Amino acid sequence: MSDRVSLLRRLAPQLIALGAILFLIWLVFPAFFSLTFQNGRAYGSLIDVLNRGAPVALLSIGMTVVIATKGIDLSVGAVMAICGAVAASASVQGQPIATTLFLALSVGVICGLWNGVLVAFLNIQPIIATLILMVAGRGIAQLITEGAILTFDDPSLAFVGSGAFLGLPVPIVIWVVFATLVTLVLRRSALGMLIEAVGINRRASMLAGVNAPVLLIAAYILSGICASIAGVAIAADIRGADANNAGLWLELDAILAVVVGGTSLLGGRFSIIGSLLGAMIIQAINTGILLSGFPPQFNLIIKAAIVVVILIIQSPEAKTLLSFVNRTRPAPVAAPKGAQQ
Amino acid sequence: MSQRYLPLLATLAIFIIAYIASTFQFPPMFSTRVIGNLLTDNAFLGIAAVGMTFVILSGGIDLSIGSVIAFTSIFLAMILATTSIHPLLAFAIVLVMTTAFGALMGAIIHYLDMPAFIVTLAGMFLARGLAFVVSIDSIPIKHPFYETLQDWYLRLPGGGRFTLIGAAMIVTFLVCIVIAHRTRFGANVYALGGGVATAKLMGVDVARTTIAIYAVSGLLAGLSGIVYSIYTSAGYSLATVGVELDAIAAVVIGGTLLSGGVGFVAGTFIGIAIQGLIQTYITFDGTLSSWWTKILIGILLFSFVAMQKGILLFSKDRSQKAG
Questions:
Q1: How many CA atoms lie within 13 A of B96 on its CB side?
Q2: Which of A313, A319, A311, A310 is nearest to A340 (CA)?
Q3: Which residues cross the membrane (chain B) (predicted)?
Q4: Which residues of chain B neighbour A203 with C-beta distances below 8 Å?
C-alpha cells in the first residue's frame, strides 16, 4: 500500500506535466479526448498519441535499464534501421513471418551483445562504444537494402505495424505488454536492484559479488531487442525499410523520455513507468502542436522550451531550492547524489 | 612523457600510411588539387570540431553545433537578402548570438547541475527550431562581398587552390592550439577534464571556465556556419544535420579521450584529415557506395578506441583509476 503511494509521489511531476499538456491540448482542440469505434478498432487523438509514441516508448524501456547501469545507448536508432532492413529483406525473399521476426530479433540481440561486450569487457565508455554502431549501423542497413527503400507486401508482417488487436492498434499492445513483462521480471526478482547497484558503483557491486559484466551485457541486449521490435514495427507500418530515415534521431527522443521520466543519467535508481510517461509526454507535445494548428516551424522551439522547464523542475538545484521553501515542514533529508537507497 | 603523445602519433602514422597506400592505387591523389579540396570541403567541419575538442577535453559534450551551423547559415542568408547591412556586420551579429547561446548552455549546465548531454540536446532542438522560424526554404546568398570572399585563393603549384575558408580552418586550429597549451584558460580546461573536485582545489574558477568553454564552442560553431554559408552560397535550415557526430568522431579519432583531460587540438585536425581522406578515396574509387564512408568511420572509431585502451592497459608508468 505504502509502495503504491511512494510510486505515485515519485511519478507526480511526470503525471502533472502530462496532465497539464493534455489539458492545454484540450483547451485548443476540444475533440482531443473523443474516441470512436469503427471496424472493430478505436480511433481518436488519444489512441494516436499512444500509437505514434510506440517506437520511443519501446526504446525507452531498454534505454532506462541501460541508463540505470550508468550507461547510454546511442545506437538504438541505427539498430532500428538494421532490424527493419533485415525484416524487410527476409520478407521479400519469401520467408514466413516467424522466421522474419526471429531473424530481426536475433540481429537486435547481436547488436546489443556487441555494445555490451565493448562496455563490459573492453571498458569503453558507453557513449563511445555505442557511437561506433550509431555511425556504422546506418551504413550496414543501407548495405542490406542496397541503398533503396525495400518494400514488401506480406500482410502478416504489416499487421505488426498497422493491425489491430482487441480494438487497439498492435504497436500499443506490443509496448504495453513488453513494458509490463520487463517491469515484472526486474521488480519481482532482484535483477532490478542489482542493476541499480551496478549503476551506482560498479566496483563496489562487483566486490559485493554482483556479476556486473553479465548484467551490463544483458542491459544492452535488452536495449537491442527493444530497438529491434521498434524497428520492425516502424518498417511494418510503412510496409518498407528506409535505411536512411527509419529511427533517425529516435535515440535522442528515447534518452529525453528517460530523463523526463525522472531517471538520472548518472545511473542508479530507475523507473520504467516514468520513462513511458516521459515518452507519452514527448508524443503528446508533438501531437498537440500539430493539432493546435501552430505553424509547424515552431514545433522544435516549443518542444525545447517544455523539455527545459520539466528538466529545470527536476534538477538537483531546484530541489534544493524547494526544500528551503518547505523547511517549515519536516522534510525528508535529501540523500547525497548517486547514493539513493 | 612520450606516452601522452602515443595516440596522437598513432593517428598521424595511420593517416600517412593510408594516404601513401591510396596514392599507390590512385597516383592523382597525391596532388595539391586533392589536398586543397580536402581543406576546403572540410573547413566548416574542422572549425566546429575545434570547439568540440575544448568541450570534450573538459569532460563535456556539445550536441548543438550542427543546429547552430544551420541557424547561422539561414540567419545570414535571411539578413543579407532582406536588409542592406554589410556581411561583416552580419558576421559580427551572428557570432555574438551563437557565443551567447553557448554561454547560456554553459551557465545552465553549471548552475543547475544538469548533464551537458541533455542541456545541449535541448539546445540542439532550440537552435534547429529557431532556424526553421527564420525560414524553411533554402535561401541563396548573392551579395558581391561573398563573391569576393569565394574568389580569394592562393594558386598552389600543380593547380590546387588554397581557399580562404581552408585558410580560416588552419588559422582556427593554430590559434586554438596556442590557447589550449599556452594560456590559463587552456590549462583550466584540462584541469576540469581531469576532475572537477581537483580543479576546484587547484583554484580553477569552475563556473567561469564551464561557461567560457561552451561559449567558445558556440563561437566556433557560428564561425563554422559563416564558413559553411561561404562554401555553399546559401542558407538552409535543414543543412548540417548530424555534423556534431562527425565532429565527435574526428575528436576521438584524433586521440582525445571522451572522459576528458587527455588529448590535443592538433589531433582533431588529423581526425578531420582522415575522414576527408576516406571520402576522397571513395570518390576516386567510384564503385564503392557512399555508405561505406559510415562503416569505415565506425571501424576506425572502434580501432582507435581499442588502441587507446591497449595503450592504457600496457602502461605501467602510473596506476590507473578504476573506470
A1: 6
A2: A319
A3: 6-26, 38-57, 63-81, 88-111, 117-141, 162-181, 211-231, 295-314
A4: 322
CA distance A265 to A186: 19
Three-state DSSP class for residue B123:
helix
Rg, chain A, Cα only? 20
In a domain, A7, yes or no: no
Q: Is the CB of A151 inside 8 Å of chain B's CB atoms?
A: no
Closest residue, chain A, to B301 (C-alpha): A132
| A148 interfacial to chain B (CB closer than 8 Å) | no
Chain B interface, mutation test: which of A63, A73, A128, A140, most B Cβ atoms within 10 Å?
A128
**Which backbone phi and psi does B140 adopt, to 5 degrees?**
-75, 150
Nearest to A298 among B118, B129, B292 (CB): B129
How distant is the alpha carbon of residue A220 from its chain centre?
A: 13
Range of the domain at A99: 54-276
pTM surpassing 0.90? no
Question: What is the predicted ipTM?
Answer: 0.80
Strand partners, B234: B140
B121 contacts A136? CB cut-off 8 A? no
Cell digits of residue A49: 498519441
Domains and CATH numbers, chain B: 2-314 (1.10.3470)
B70 within 8 A of B128, measured Cβ to Cβ: yes
Say yes or no: B129 contacts chain A, CB-CB below 8 A. yes
Per-residue model confidence as pLDDT tens digits over A133-163: 988 898 899 888 887 888 888 888 888 888 8
Q: How many Cα neighbours within 13 Å face the side chain of B99?
A: 10
CB interface of B with A, residues 234-263, below 8 Å:
245, 248-249, 252, 258-259
What is the CA B138 to chain-centroid distance, rounded? 24
* Length, in residues, of chain B: 323
Domain count, chain A: 1
Q: Encode pLDDT of A286-308 as tens digits.
A: 888 888 777 777 778 887 887 78
Cβ contacts of A164-167, under 8 Å, gap ≥ 24: A164/A40, A164/A41, A167/A37, A167/A40, A167/A41, A167/A42
Asked if residue A189 is part of any domain, the answer here is yes
DSSP state of B31: S
